[in-house]
């Protein structure tokens, strides 16, 4: 029996800047069956607030699992960076690379006219103008950073730490960095512990490389049909593509156990 389901947003719940009606229907179906839906995303709490409220979802794991929020409130188990690490990075990056800093309630950027920042906003959307930030500023807890840099420069920020950081490259020119031992799976396990729900009674949907740990950690891990090859290779289950109403299909047939309408249909079955 599944009691909680975690959903990535981009490429999973959200398509072309909107939530398909069938995805919203799937969330309602879960709630009607006393199953808790949870957002699990690399975005920050500030970015997903309006979407969480639109979907009437209480819980969100943001910043790739570093921040646990209940109706926007920071909950126990959230993990922020050491402020000294952030300050050191900003001093290294000064004049070379732009940082986007994710707090719970605000986003900050070291350069507002960065072409890569503009490109990210155009490609993924969903966030307002960040507040300016620089080395030496007093900042709130920062749970994730995006560094706009190529693979060669990545080592300036990812190496030289007592414990390895979680680094996820999502464009040739951009990486997410999270504190040590933080990824979506870590956030999932902390929330399951907080809500006293066994891992076997959890499920998750995703489509990207940063969903791999989560999909393999839950009781029922489901990859969207449009997922990256790496996730499709490791996911225990698959559903249809997002544009083929894959969320509703997966919720009905893999979570709620409804029979497939056509016995010849195999997509969405365990692999």
UniProtKB/TrEMBL annotation:
This protein's source sits in the domain of life called Bacteria
Q: Which UniProt keywords apply?
A: Hydrolase
PROSITE patterns xrefs? COF_2 (PS01229)
Q: One short Pfam family name for this protein?
A: Hydrolase_3
- What GO molecular function terms would the record report? hydrolase activity
Decide whether keyword Hydrolase is in the record. yes
Signal peptide coordinates: none
Look up keyword Membrane and say if it applies. Answer: no
Question: Per its record, how is this protein called by name?
Answer: HAD family hydrolase
What is the species of this protein? Tumebacillus lacus
């Amino acid at each position: 029996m599944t009691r909680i389901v975690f959903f990535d947003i981009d490429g999973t719940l959200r398509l072309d800047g909107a939530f398909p009606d069938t995805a919203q229907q799937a969330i309602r179906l879960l709630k009607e069956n006393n199953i808790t839906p949870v957002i699990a995303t690399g975005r920050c709490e500030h970015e997903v607030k309006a979407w969480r409220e639109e979907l009437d979802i209480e819980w969100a794991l943001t910043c790739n699992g570093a921040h646990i929020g209940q109706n926007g409130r920071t909950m126990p188990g959230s993990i922020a960076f050491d402020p000294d690490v952030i300050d050191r990075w900003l001093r290294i990056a000064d004049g070379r690379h732009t940082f986007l800093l994710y707090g719970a309630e605000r986003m900050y950027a070291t350069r507002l006219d960065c072409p890569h920042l503009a490109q990210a906003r155009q490609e993924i959307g969903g966030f307002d103008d960040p507040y300016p930030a620089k080395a030496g500023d007093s900042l709130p807890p920062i749970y994730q950073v995006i560094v706009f840099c190529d693979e060669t420069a990545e080592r300036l920020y990812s190496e030289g730490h007592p414990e390895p950081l979680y680094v996820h490259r999502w464009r040739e020119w951009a990486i997410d960095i999270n504190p040590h031992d933080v990824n979506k799976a870590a956030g999932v396990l902390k929330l399951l512990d907080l809500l006293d729900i066994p891992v076997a009674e959890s499920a998750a949907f995703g489509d990207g490389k940063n969903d791999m740990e989560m999909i393999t950690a839950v009781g029922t891990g489901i990859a969207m049909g449009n997922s990256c090859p790496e996730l499709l290779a490791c996911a225990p289950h698959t559903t249809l593509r997002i544009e083929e109403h894959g969320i509703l299909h997966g919720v009905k047939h893999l979570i709620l156990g409804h029979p497939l309408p056509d016995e010849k249909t195999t997509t969405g079955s365990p692999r």
